Amino acid sequence: MKRFFLTTAIDYVNSRPHLGTAYEKVCADVIARYKRLCGFETRFLMGNDEHSQNVFKKASEEGLDPLKYCDQMEQEFRRTWKRLDVSFDDFIRTTEPRHRAGVTEITNRIHAAGDIYEGVYEGWYCVGCEEFKQEKDLVDGNCPLHPTLKPEWIKEKNYFFRLSKYQQPLLDHFAAHPEFLQPDVRRNEILRLIEGGLVDISVSRAGQSWGIPLPFDPESVVYVWFDALINYASAVGLGGDQEMFARWWPADLHVIGKDITRFHAVIWPAMLMSAGLKLPQQIFGHGFMTMNGQRMSKTLGTIVDPIVAADRLGHDPLRLYLVKEVTFGGDGDFSWERYDERYNVDLANNLGNLVNRVTAMAHRYRNGRVVPAGETSSRLRDLPNEVATCYRRAMDAFAIHEAAASVFRLIDATNLHITETAPWTLAKDPASADRLTQVLFDAAEAIRLAAVLLEPIMPSSSREILRRVGVSPDALLFERDGRWRSDGERVLLQEGPLWPRKELTTVSENPLPPGAPGAHPAPAPSTAAPGTAPGTAAPSTPAPGAAPAGGDRISIDDFMKVELRVAKVLAAERVPKSNRLLKLQVDVGTEQRTLVAGIAEAYEPEALIGKTVVVVFNLKPAKLMGVESNGMVLAASPDGGKPTVVSFETPPPPGTRVR
RNA sequence: GCCGGAGUAGCUCAGUUGGUUGAGAGCACGCGUCUCAUAAGCGCGGGGUCGGCGGUUCGAGUCCGCCCUCCGGCACCA
Questions:
Q1: What DSSP element (H or E) covers A585?
Q2: Contacts with A256 (C-beta within 8 Å, 6 or more apart), sequence order
Q3: Is the N end or the C end of chain A the one with fewer CB atoms within 10 Å?
Q4: How far apart are CA A114 and CA A361, in angstroms?
Q5: What pTM did the predictor assign?
Q6: Per residue in A566-589, pLDDT tens?
Q7: Whose CA is nearest the C1' atom of nucleotide B35?
Q8: A348 contact to strand B (CB, 7 A limit)
């Protein structure tokens, strides 16, 4: 039997799943379900990434044993995926023994291949800064902050993977397998990156306990990224169940977010090459979901909880939105208004209403029983199989949005078919009895086919529709069920609307703040200034249910940890070769400090001199473009806009505490 | 700044290797209409200098050049 093994990225467990993570799982699930429909023995893997220092920290903060914390998060993730009907076959955690076995195996193989060397972390070191310096940070070979001190060339023990060795093999692989990384934008980006040269990467961390020990040096643990990638292989038995591994490896598809393509399309294949293992067939880097055009962020309140979204209209409507409204591979936007709109149009008005009217007519005119009794009307003669073909072509190319849209062409055609044949007119003339029967049969058959095609996207709704049109929803197979059929009697069930229409007047149920676009039932667009399309200046809109739970707020003590002070800018200049950074000399009352601010796009250095601003006084120093920054200037940074520094109507003296 | 992508109706986008597109779909909006149906369905309509300027061509949204704007990737976003 043909097999298909696909994976999603494993998720960091330091925060709960949001709509962005859900998006990836749903899209992968659509592909998995489609492959099953096509008769593939399918294995769909998901999981959690637990060996992160952030996880360790987060657990400690909550006073939990890290593993206990991860146990809780696993339940959280599983609950979410279950709610969205994500049909994973396996769920791996990187703290499981089988994963440790896989990591150990592959690390040993790479080591044996001579591609891991106990090296040194080498680099320039400025004693003045107590920091490593990159070559490019140095000016004339000297630290820009301490030009009188000669930087030292320092070495520190570490383990390295010879990634550089795989530049050419990777380029060859990309050339031989154009489909290896999709979509093309991602592929080109990565190709340029590889062409630009690869440097060996550190694969170990010393002095840490949270992680998998390096087999040949238990004092070190495997670096979290190296560790995480291996989950795909350890989940199917690498280092353990040989038979299983032989059966499922290599993976057919890794579905990942575009932010981590580099790890999956460069490091991971190189690791596999080194270990003498096959490379995955394909990697697909999907885009991100935004909320009202803004990136999902906790502080902006633009996080959408997938469970809340599923609770609003149902998990299938949410899945349909994610799949149909977003070009798979590109970024997509979610808004509650659009979500409601798509629900009404696609599901209530078109598909749901179609099922309802056809089952109602079948009952009114034929006691629910329909059989083929003549010729199929022209509207439905060729289109259904065309749609099925188009759908498959799209699905096979992972154009899942196109596949979804194509099904609605069939649904629209069926509504047209009913208008054109007017069963209610046929019913008045006994001579048209057979014609009426056939018209109803055709409609029922079209609905059946649409439901089969929708199964990967809306599994439970699909089954419900199939049940209503008198077809067994079990064990669907594309070869048999995915094209027009005119066999047998169908007994239709009339059970009322599947998706009740959501009236637009209920927008007030949307948890939109007053003043947000869409919060007014009857806006007057004609009075809007040209170019100010509603929504462009949308303030952040909290997700429903994301009402300030105590957990997201900090205590006054937390806030008091941040020492904000009034500061006066004494000098300002551009950081060389930087287009965003300004180097500022400020008076913070007790002393003068140098700090770097990313506001060069909005402020000329001269304009800042003498200005009174607010700085974070007790921030750890950081070096940016080689300049050490001791503090941070507070500024408002609108998405896509230029920053504005916080200032005063009547400037207080430098050093004044701000709280 | 470098590399890549994109700028087409109010919104989201199709437009294949230049010519049956003297510019299309869906949503929204307006009008009409059937009545099986969830005030749903179906039909008609308004509305666009196809980012700007120049060029190649018998002919360009579709090719070339320059410019503008937006997005993404990388490099500095404390």
A1: strand A582-587
A2: A8, A9, A24, A264, A283, A284, A285, A286
A3: N
A4: 73
A5: 0.76
A6: 888 887 777 665 667 778 888 877
A7: A424
A8: yes
